[in-house]
Amino acid sequence: MSTLVAVLIALALPARAHEVRPAIADMTQDGSRLVFDVRLNLEGVLAGIDLSAVADTNEAAEADRYDALRALSDSALADEARADWPGIAAGIGILAGPDRLTPMLSGIVVEPQQNTDLPRDTILSFTVDLPAGADAVTVGWARSYGTLVLRQQGVDDPYTGYLEAGATSDPILLTGGGAVGGWEAFVRYIPVGVDHIVPKGLDHILFVLGLFFLAARLRPLLWQVSAFTLAHTITLAAAALGLVSIPASIVEPLIAASIVYVAVENLFTDGLSRWRPFVIFGFGLLHGLGFASVLAEFGLPQGAFIPALIGFNVGVELGQLLVIAVMALCVLAAVRVDRGQGAPVLAQGLYVGLAVVSVGVCLWSPSALEIALENPAWVFFGPLAAVFALSTLSIRSEPKPGAYRRFVAIPASLFIAAVGTWWVIERVFL
User: Fold this and answer.
1) What is the C-alpha R_g of the chain?
2) H or E segment to which residue 424 belongs
3) Which element (helix H / strand E) includes 148?
4) CB half-sphere exposure, 124, CA atoms < 13 A
5) Residue 105 CB neighbours (<10 A)
6) What is d(CA 45, CA 85) in angstroms, rounded to the nearest whole number?
7) Residue-level pLDDT at 302
8) What angle, 0 to 180 degrees and rounded to 10, lies between the N-to-C axes of helices 2-16 and 378-396?
């Protein structure tokens, strides 16, 4: 039980933290200058946080500095940015051919956000002077500044790029025509969709796991995943096309409530009820709106809207299938023993070893792993250690029938329901 409580706290904490979001830059040509308006979390940059290595600012060693900056008034924060502008500009690499262009600060607008527990957006405006004859530029963004969404404005077929931390854009034609093609947009947005599930979508991960733990059989899982996929595809497309818009303050608590529902229902049945696929379809509509909020942050390329949307949705599906596949592999030995198909001694030894490895990763995780996961390692490997421990208990209880359900599926569902309940409370009242 203590392990379960510790894991519960571990997964609940990231939902409270100051989420790291992509910076969004609009680039417009004004005569011989380029004008950039960048919406970003300025406190994170000023605090020196490596925004590529954390999913929320509370995880960073510089969290205290971040909180002190977050507590400043809007005008005081702007003053801090002006004083530190040379250092900020050093992380912005804009080149026209071989010439590195110097960013010159032109404005800072700190958007009011009274609740200091929430991130505050700032629009940082700067210009660069173009050398004579320049017809294209490349834009680079320091790795520590996190992900950058770069959007060209005021031209036909504008460039839109999703630059991972530390990446540099392709050459951007100043006269336009640099929009990505349909196939390229499709391919580029697949990893964006995957990334929104694994590692960033902890709430979507728990919902999918709630579907998985209903029963250790393929048919109920296929029915549920099919209903969920169809539903979130509909609302994702509708929201991205601007046909529907519901505030996140409504959608996010309902998504958390959907996690609670599927997990609690798992406690009372081990089979697919007549109404469950329809309920999951309804919850899938909500999750689609949650997925759409990610796209709304940075938009889709105008000239390849549909391919990019499809690519993002394919990425979401791949992320969900990855979650299911990993958990299926984790509990496979316990399920086989429960069905009388595996050797208990070998399976028990396997789970003890996996639990030890998972705990070891939690305690001594390399920084490269945490950068890849965009979360502390214990957020993922803590729950895995608990699953392996529960699977060991399931095997030790053999030959009692239904051991997997009693010792793995039900405790896992209780844990998922508890986290979902906390998220409902947090998203409504905190």
Assistant:
1) 24
2) helix 410-429
3) strand 148-153
4) 27
5) 15
6) 11
7) 67
8) 150
